[in-house]
Amino acid sequence: MNKVTLFLVVALFVAATLAAPKKIEVSFIDHDNIEEPNDGGLVYTPHGTVIVGDIEIELTRNGILNPSHRWPQGRIYYTISQNYSSAIHDTVIAAMRELEHDINGASGHCIQFIPRTNQVTYIEIHAGTGCHSIIGFNNHGKQDVSIGAGCELKGIIMHELIHTIGFWHEQSRPDRDNYINIDLTNVKAESRHDFNLHTTTEATTLNTAYDFGSIMHYGVYTFALDRSKPVITAKPGKASDTTSMGQRLSLSPTDVLKIQRLYGCTEDTTHITKPTTLTKCTFESTECGLVIEHTTFNWIHGRGVIADGPHAGYSFGTDSYLIAVQSPTHATGVAKIHSPTYRNGPVCVDFYFYQKGPSSYLDVVVQGPHLTTTVVKNYHNNYQNNWVHSKTSVNVPVGTEFTVTFQAHMATGDVAIDDVHIYQGHCV
Question: Mean pLDDT for the chain?
């Protein structure tokens, strides 16, 4: 090769290298947290109340049927601890504004959260132990609302503020035994009080249907001794295939309706804030647009116990899930399922996973033709033998193509996923 030819080859190589578009780096934020962070133990407070799970109850109160426990004119005065970071402070305010927006609509002010000046009865939001709140208005001065470590997501804060407005948990309503089964043998002894059923003298359904999707409903495995087995299961035919108990994403229409009825406001559930869903799947019968890649291992639908997998899915305790099981013919390999192609910009990847070791594990990969392939989650060595909640905000420029792939790296042990929800924007 002469010098001229060599020069041209080098020049072409350099030109091609310079012309090649640079791959876009993917950034992400980890939002993994523990559901219902309070441990459910009984904690007595200095002012005559008892904390049961995430509820602080006056020992002499009668429940939300008593009109004196509703906030006068729906006005809830508050202070927020100055010890919070600005980000957590802003999340608390965002939770209040979303509640007002969803409940009030265009009809006016049904519920208002108002900064306290000199009001005698008000709520103080602070970083206590776990998450808990008094039920309703108690007219004896300051009422604590604890938003402690692990509770700082908007949905959990809204859950606690609805206790403040005047509501018990959905699974404690008087008619709950028509809709769910509760296995108290699988509940920590100190937490069983939190599953008490409230009678019609303590609480009212406000003529609404039982709501598995309420932001006030416990999850299937809340306070479980053995978190591979469900505590709450839906009775046959009572829950829809898209139901997921224990969601902390947004108010349901029934949540809004009950608050409006309790406070005598105009009934309007047409303006509830919800994220734009791109993909949502509970794996009851299909993959909902997710695509299984055929490799040495495959994802399959599971119901009940399969191999070393869970006893039930996450959604409502008797449902299906997706599982990759170890193979008698292959020592190692990868099972993959990927999302459709998105171009919507940042997304939240929200799902539950279950993995039993000693060496199989899950990771989540974001990739696209113009992106640097990025592992946004890696759960190697995370073997808890129970369903674990995973939430990640993934930052991708609007218009850039990408997919999300769930990869089970198989060796010894099984991996399962359920309740996959990918929605537009950052996780809330």
Answer: 86
Q: Enter the pTM of the model.
A: 0.84
- Is 159 assigned to a binding site? yes
Does 169 show up as a binding residue in the annotation?
A: yes
Domain assignment present for residue 12? The answer is: no
d(CA 162, CA 256): 10
pLDDT digits (tens, 9 = 90+) for 75-120: 999 999 999 999 999 999 999 999 999 999 776 789 999 999 999 9
Quick one: which of 349, 329, 341, 333 has its CA closest to 395? 349
Are 133 and 55 a contacting pair, CB within 8 Å? Answer: yes
Q: What is the CATH number of the domain that holds 329?
A: 2.60.120.200
Domain count for the chain: 2
What distances in angstroms separate CA 292 from CA 295, 328, 336, 337, one per listed residue?
Answer: 9, 21, 6, 4
CATH number at residue 138: 3.40.390.10
**163 assigned to a ligand binding site:** yes
> Do 417 and 295 fall into the same domain?
yes
Helix (H, G, I), strand (E, B) or coil at 17: helix
* Residue 42, beta-bridge partner list: 52
- Residue 87, burial from CB neighbour count under 10 angstroms (0-12, 13-18, 19+): exposed
Among 391, 343, 334, 374, smallest CA distance to 32 is for 391
Tokens encoding 307: 């191999």
User: Residue 189's Cα: distance from chain center in Å?
Assistant: 25
Kindly state the DSSP code that residue 326 receives in the 8-state scheme: -
In angstroms, rounded to a whole number, what is the distance separating the alpha carbons of residues 133 and 54?
Answer: 7
Pick from 140, 165, 190: which residue ends a domain? 165
Q: Which residues are catalytic?
A: 160
335 domain residue, yes or no: yes
CB 144 within 8 A of CB 122: no
| Domain end marker among 121, 136, 165 | 165
